[in-house]
Amino acid sequence: MTRLLRSRRSLLVIAGIAIVALLVTGYAGWGGERIVVAVAERGELRQAVVASGRVRTPQRIEVAAQISARVVAVKVREGDAVTAGQTMIQLDDTEWRASAAQARASLAQAEAKQRQLDRLGRPVAEQSVEQAEANAQQAKRQLERVGELVAKGFYSTAQLDDARRNAQVADSQWQAAKLQLASNQPGGSEAQVVRSNVEQARAALAVAEARLAYATLTAPGAGRVLTRNVEAGDMVQPGKILLTVAPKGDTELTAQIDEKNLALLQLGQTALASADAYPGEHFTAEVTYIAPAVDAQRGSVEIRLRVAEPPAYLKHEMTVSIDIASAHRADTLIVPADVIRDQASGQPWVMVVRDGVAQRQPVKLGIRGAGRVEILDGIVAGEALAAASQNLAEGRKVSTVNRK
User: Fold this and answer.
1) Cα(12)–Cα(18) distance, rounded to whole angstroms?
2) Which residues have C-beta within 8 Å of that of residue 75, sequence separation ≥ 6?
3) What CATH class is the domain 49-58+248-328?
4) Strands of 384-386's sheet, edge to edge?
5) How far apart are CA 146 and CA 158, in angstroms?
6) Is it true that 49-58+248-328 and 61-92+215-246 share their CATH fold?
7) Are 368 and 402 in contact (CB under 8 A)?
8) Given its phi and psi angles, is residue 76 left (phi above 0), alpha (psi -120 to 50 degrees) or beta?
9) What global pTM score does this model have?
10) Does residue 58 contact residue 247 with C-beta atoms inside 8 Å?
């Protein structure tokens, strides 16, 4: 009796399993394979180029010594704001002050010589010409009288020779006086020498004052001190970089963008940036420069963005994350990027489920962003799409479950 009951129970279990198998087989044949699908829907889509970059200034000014000297004082520190002309470093200028004073004295002497020529030398030369002319005229008249007297027999020929010699001497003195006057005129040789001495003295003074000015290193413009490589008491040599100053101006961001995103960039695009040190804070920037060439080694393009209102915490060389908005759609048809197949071929398509049957459907793509793609043509909102990773044959019957 017990064995009979056990046999009946075994038959019932086997029959139950067979019934379940028949039900499952029947459901599969009627409803098809069960798959998870994404649904095309309308919504907002933003396409962006994301990159990591750094804060930079348009230029940096390296302040270096131009003379060999000892540092007397350093009046700025790293991070200090400076104004144009502000003294930053003072070098020992004792020698250069003495040189400037000597050059100033030489100039004063040359200018005094020029004034002497203008106020005394030229008038004296004019009077000398008048006196020499009078003497020459008198000697000439004396020569004429002696000649007459010699002809009448009152004077000897020796007296005539003396008179002739005196006339020649007087005439020579007159000619010499005229040459001296010409030399003292503004275009004369003496005036040129005096003027040349003045110009030479002025040039020497300019050199001395320039060297003296080298002893005081001032800010070339408003900005901020980035680095300081000198202390009071140091001996510096020409060309040694002592300070680096970032001039005041628009703060910029610089980044290297993968060349495949070059077509998405254009001047004037806005970006949202954040410093890695302050990830919760954001500020806006604008694309102002796109390099005309691609870096062949890195396969990237340099871009620069202007920050019109930089936050106070932003510092030079900070690492920043940059999100550049390249396109925006307020209301468009969107699908997950993982349902698009053969994107690289230029003929993308999706596997859409219509009336329980998988169908291959070519689509036209629009912008992309954050794992989603815009569909311009091929499907409509509400249609179910199988992921590209699913090995689903066209024409196959399926039942769908929407992706969560």
Assistant:
1) 10
2) 87, 88, 89, 90
3) mainly beta
4) 357-362, 349-354, 384-386, 33-39, 398-402
5) 10
6) no
7) no
8) beta
9) 0.48
10) yes
